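Incident log, support desk, overnight shift.

02:14 A customer reports that sequence design results differ from what the structure should imply. Their input is reproduced verbatim below. On-call engineer (initials T.W.) acknowledged and began investigating.
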């Protein structure tokens, strides 16, 4: 028997239970998960309110390999980013969804960063490949994805403006690569951004907030600019009339990570680039706050606190 975190209808929070885990099937790897990532993805219960295991990302050590799996051996350190039901000590995982963890990155960092880092990879390097000298607006710059996005954009030579909700978060944004910060919500966003760019606007705006902010990002764009909305903490964006894009040839995108890493080869290539930058110190997630499974409820409360600026992980 091995530990699993489960959320049941009517319970005050996640509870530690036990489950039996059989041997890995064909094409699977049995992973002893030493660390599991905590972010908002994977916390929502399924439709119907059934009991479920939260989490989507983890890292650990291979214990056994199923039939047909090549290139993986017991003892290898591996991680995954987008498989629901991650908060458990031992799990059988499709081999193609696992990626190697380099020796210079600990399991807690790998589990806490991999999903956010892979999101930043496709946002900055594939969907809209940001170039040196371009101007970037990052809305939600002090968040878990926002900090890595600002660091990575600055590392490739872009001039980054971070939109944040408070002066305290402005300091966090500047420490993570933002040349400028703006605060105060959606209403004054466009005016502040245009003032910083001499009236031109930015080449690309990344919106992690959603709601009305997504629509206001359009007013922050330079001609032929692009707004990419990948978060919805403020709710879904309002309906958008496509005619609004025509005059300045603007582009709008609402992508999801799952589609961009659906191919095993794309997943592996992106994770290798991500971990190389983390290992070299060009991306700096900072120390990860780790909690044992018995303190999962406390870790979730910290995660949901909008003031929290730490990367979090569970450890088994």
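02:41 Re-run completed on a clean worker. Output:
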């Amino acid at each position: 028997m091995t530990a699993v975190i489960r959320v049941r209808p009517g319970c005050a929070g996640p509870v530690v239970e036990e489950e039996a885990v059989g041997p890995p099937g064909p094409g699977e790897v049995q992973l002893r998960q030493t660390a599991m990532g905590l972010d908002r993805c994977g916390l929502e219960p399924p439709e119907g309110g059934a009991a479920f295991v939260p989490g989507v990302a983890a890292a650990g050590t291979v214990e056994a390999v199923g039939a047909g799996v090549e290139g993986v051996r017991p003892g290898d350190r591996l991680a995954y980013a987008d498989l629901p039901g991650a908060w458990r000590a031992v799990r059988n995982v499709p081999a193609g969804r696992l990626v190697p963890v380099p020796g210079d990155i600990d399991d807690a960092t790998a589990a806490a960063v991999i999903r956010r880092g892979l999101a930043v990879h496709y946002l900055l390097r594939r969907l809209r490949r940001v170039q040196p000298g371009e101007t970037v607006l990052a809305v939600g710059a002090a968040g878990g994805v926002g900090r890595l996005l600002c660091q990575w954009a600055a590392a490739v030579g872009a001039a980054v403006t971070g939109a944040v909700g408070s002066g305290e978060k402005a300091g966090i944004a500047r420490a993570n690569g933002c040349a400028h910060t703006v605060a105060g919500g959606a209403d004054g966003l466009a005016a502040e951004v245009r003032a910083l760019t001499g009236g031109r606007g930015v080449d690309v705006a990344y919106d992690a907030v959603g709601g009305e902010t997504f629509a206001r990002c359009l007013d922050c764009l330079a001609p032929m600019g692009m707004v990419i909305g990948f978060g919805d903490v403020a709710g879904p964006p309002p309906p958008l009339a496509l005619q609004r894009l025509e005059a300045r040839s603007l582009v709008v995108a609402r992508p999801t990570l799952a589609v961009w890493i659906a191919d095993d080869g794309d997943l592996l290539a992106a994770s290798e680039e991500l971990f190389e930058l983390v290992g070299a110190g060009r991306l700096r997630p900072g120390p990860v706050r780790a909690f044992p499974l018995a303190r999962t409820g406390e870790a979730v409360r910290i995660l949901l606190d909008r003031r929290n600026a730490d990367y979090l992980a569970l450890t088994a």
